[in-house]
Amino acid sequence: MTTPSGEEMPIASSDDVVRVRQVVRAAAAAAGLSLVDQTKLVTAASELARNTYAHGGGGAMRVERATGEDGRKGVRLVFTDEGPGIADVDRALSEGWSSGTGLGLGLPGARQLCDEFGLRSEAGGGTTVTVAKWTR
Amino acid sequence: MTGGADDTPIAELLRSWREPVLGRWIELVGETVHGRLSEAEVRSELTELYGLVERALEGDTAAGDELRAALAEISRGRARHGFSPTETAVGVFALKQSLYEQIRMTRDQRAYSELIDFSSYVDELGLATFETYAAAREQVIADQADQLLELSTPVVRLWDRVLGVPLVGTLDSARAQIAMETLLQALVTTGARYAVIDITGVPAVDTEVAQHLMKTVMAARLMGTHCVVSGIRPQIAQTIVALGIEFGDIVTKATLADALAYVLERSGLRVVGEPEG
Amino acid sequence: MDRVPILKIGDVLLVSIQTDLQDQTVLALQEDLSERIVATGAHGVIIDITAVDVVDSFIGRMFATIASMSRLMDAETVVVGMRPAVAITLVELGLSLGGVRTALDLEEGMRLLGAGLPHAGPAGSARPARPGPALADGP
Description:
The complex is a heterotrimer.
Chain A: E1 2-11, H1 14-30, H2 35-54, E2 59-67, E3 73-81, H3 89-93, H4 106-113, E4 116-121, E5 127-134
Antiparallel strand pairs in A: 1-2, 2-3, 3-5, 4-5
Helix pairs in contact in A: 1-2, 2-4
Chain B: H1 10-16, H2 18-33, H3 39-57, H4 61-80, H5 85-106, H6 109-151, E1 156-159, E2 162-168, H7 173-190, E3 194-201, H8 207-223, E4 226-230, H9 234-243, E5 251-253, H10 256-266
Parallel strand pairs in B: 2-3, 3-4, 4-5
Antiparallel strand pairs in B: 1-2
Chain C: E1 6-9, E2 12-16, H1 23-40, E3 44-48, H2 57-72, E4 76-80, H3 84-93, E5 101-103, H4 106-112
Parallel strand pairs in C: 2-3, 3-4, 4-5
Antiparallel strand pairs in C: 1-2
Helix pairs in contact in C: 1-2
């Protein structure tokens, strides 16, 4: 279902968080997402990129044009890092909980803002977060 | 589909009785469409279908596909023009009746045995017709819902820098979303300090609708506009309490007039009656 | 790293954010702003985000921090010009900017701080400016 357009960018500094926002904004606009949905996806990407950089010790984001199960077009983002991983995924996804700085809205917030959310993580084995947003 | 080798194949019967069976079919269908389609239209439609049925029963698979496509096209047209499901399905089933009447008249014993197989074949076609009809109706409904969405979220100016958003009809997620975006955009373009969301015309408020209302009010607040929700009818108030929905610190008023009075008062305005005479 | 300029208009400090905010810029702005409030004795801070198309939890938290910080120094903070898409996203994100005041535009923000021109119109001009909606914590 996915056409990987292969655009991958490193997330190594807080500068890259800003670049992630710009890349995701352009991809979301190109995929035809509404302004509100673009903003939601860019905001989610900003949260996740900051997590990747601040908690995962840096990593990468891949942007894909994708099609959802019901045929709607959209954008999928995959964030990966080789960091310490998340020991308690359920807890990290519960609102208001934070493992470091921030209000703890990063993961639950990103999940709230997207149509699709996937998290794979093991202690010591890095973290992969996948989110997608479809056109309405 | 057709009977045994000894019997007259149904396709042959249809061909030899083309004139009376097709004629009666057209007559029967003509009765159900009550002049919404001209006789010539019915005739040309059914003549085409009749020919396709003949060929399909002879084992022509291409004609079978064509028959289904033609039926689908006709049912879609019927659905769009507001024909009832019965009227649409009868159009197909009437072929059975027409043939049955012909067999009874001719007392052709061999044809009777063919009729059962033919009957189930027509039933199958009828069901396919019905499915297309239902799908087409659903499409019509979806299109209308979309149009309604665009039409149904008016934003009106109640006073200087006071907007009113009367919501009418069932608020589902998609509609609430559009209403929210329309309202917030209107705040920017009009510079409104207050907005009154009136839900007098919303038949039911459940947890989801309440959630959307709260999100709208909170988003408007972030932009600097104070929202009031009005039109809380007694039944709605009861539901809200029964469901345990918390409206938080959102200001709610029973009527639009109350809301306007509240907003004017907060803006430091007073309505003063002129002494009569 | 860019630094966001802080302008002074009367006794109000105006911060107009025009760039895509980097986290360090956000932190530097908080610092700069508190120094300027003390140095100028300003009684109001306006953060204009008309040009900002994304506010994530980090930036959102900055508004709340600046508001609490300046309140300690006796200055009111008003965030003005939030775009509809940003507002919807913040609500969806579950971020309630508790204690931050908001206004639709700069003029309205100045009025809230009592620093604008007297408002002319049917609302009457002689009355003191009404406080805008204070943001309470959401559910």
